[in-house]
Automatic annotation (TrEMBL):
Gene Ontology molecular functions: S-adenosylmethionine-dependent methyltransferase activity; tRNA (5-carboxymethoxyuridine(34)-5-O)-methyltransferase activity
Classification via Gene3D superfamilies: Vaccinia Virus protein VP39 (3.40.50.150)
Example GO biological process: tRNA modification
Name of a matching Pfam family: Methyltransf_11
Enzyme class: transferase
Reactions listed under catalytic activity: 5-carboxymethoxyuridine(34) in tRNA + S-adenosyl-L-methionine = 5-methoxycarbonylmethoxyuridine(34) in tRNA + S-adenosyl-L-homocysteine
Name the record gives this protein: tRNA 5-carboxymethoxyuridine methyltransferase
Keywords: Methyltransferase, S-adenosyl-L-methionine, Transferase, tRNA processing
Domain named Methyltransferase type: residues: 48-145
Family: Belongs to the class I-like SAM-binding methyltransferase superfamily. CmoM family.
Organism classification: Bacteria, Pseudomonadati, Pseudomonadota, Gammaproteobacteria, Enterobacterales
UniProt keyword Iron, yes or no: no
Organism this protein belongs to: Buttiauxella izardii
Amino acid sequence: MRDRNFDDIAEKFSRNIYGTTKGQLRQAILWQDLDALLSVLPEKLRVLDAGGGEGQTACGLAERGHEVLLCDVSAEMISRAQAQACEKGVSENMHFVHSSAQDIGQHLEKPVDLILFHAVLEWVVDPQAVLKTLWDCLAPGGALSLMFYNANGLLMRNMFVGNFEYVLQGMKKNKRKTLSPDNPLQPEQVYHWLEQIGWQITGKTGVRVFHDYLRDKHKQRDGFENLLELETRYCRQEPFVSLGRYIHVTAIKPLEPRKNYE
């Protein structure tokens, strides 16, 4: 098994994710969380966007004056991110490395203050090992912004549309070149991995807690403002967090290492 590389479907990814209400809603909810996180961190940060794709979020941080290193295993995604940085006039605050998240440590001169790891964990073969690598790249007191594909949301969506046999068979992905992630993740498992490594979880947000379950799909577009207001109202409380198609977790690396009393 190998980690997913989007070189072959970069254009499809851009069109079907970033160019839809799914992508717009994801970015809106994500930035609500990021703005809250940035308010408690130093004014100028060293940021790593690991698996940063086309760089929408990275460019937003660069616009705010932070120094951003974006890496991606896909050369095509790196090229698209560089083009977007030029278009937005933030290239001076950004650096680009064609590298997997697992290997990014060799490209860092020193630990960073903030790590973004959005919609990548579900595509890697060994997610726990990647989280440990990112821990080693983060300075004490730094923060992690992690967004992952929620297995609960996948189950709920398939039940809503009546894919009973698919659910009964374990929802195994059978086509490689689709945008459906390879490894949907159970939230409690991800939380356990983070805490086991040493992170202190500070926030959990469901992303698209209603959007994908609407029967009238035109309301995703025509009623977007009302939908965003309702998503914002409920996305940080249960049971809605655990039903989001994605879950965004914020976590801090403590200044002092955790003591082992065993």
